[in-house]
Amino acid sequence: MRRFAEIALFSALFLPLWAGAADKPPDTPAPGTAPSTTGVNPDEIISKFAAKEKEFSEARENYMYRQTVKIQELDESGNPGGKYEIVEDIIFSPEGKRTEKVVRAPVSTLQNLILTPEDEQDLRNVQPFVLTTDEIPEYDIRYLGKQNADEIPCYVFAIKPKKMQQGKRYFEGQIWVDDRDLQIVKTYGKGVGLLKKGSDNQFPKFETLREQVDGKYWFPTYTHADDTLHFQNGPQRIRMIVTYKDYKKFEGKSTIHFGDVVDDKTKDQPKPEPKK
Questions:
Q1: pTM of this prediction exceeds 0.85
Q2: What is the pLDDT of residue 77?
Q3: What percent of the residues of the chain are helix, what percent strand, and what percent coil, each to the nearest 5?
Q4: Domain boundaries, the chain
Q5: Cβ contacts of 247 within 8 Å, gap of 6 or more
């Protein structure tokens, strides 16, 4: 995110974030006790949960869902200021292409912030973080131990990118992996990446929670952040809520039926006499 005073207003379709009083913030991510590291093979766990995450990533492309993104600016006393909200239906094509259909987008009243392409990438890929087998080589992964996440026994890992490429966003923080299903159930951290020289982009720390939607895979359902962004010309506190709900499975494949009777309009016409 950037200050309005630093660049021109970006497109209103660059997605972010606000939290109303009715939104319930998640539990604080900081562990209360040190995780246990007894009797665990971290490399084996990483290999297994990354394979499960790849399965989930592919399965998610058969679901559509509704995503609501909200942001609210807060002053130094915590009083609400400008806000932004957008509601979209997210659909994946049979080829895995993501389509975003805007359902509702009230006029933004943000006064100090605008959203950048990096914010959009974080919203799509970093906040609902998925760590598959193909992405494991991009990250340094350190096992921290076992710990419950909302009464779910989990393996906890610290994640950070090994080397960043220009134009790509990465996750840096911690993940909680269910010790039974071996899928990510919670993440806490922030989006990181290489920025242009002189850029004053700032990105909030967030927590994302997942829930079992189909009895097999854990889907992101809630992202929350309450953070102060320290810009060059002063701090700005924001509160963010992203919800993902109404997951519905669909099959994006067409079915062709063979053997149907075709009405041949020429069958009753008299046949020409054979030439002699």
A1: no
A2: 87
A3: 10, 40, 45
A4: 2-24+39-249
A5: 63, 64, 65, 213, 214, 219
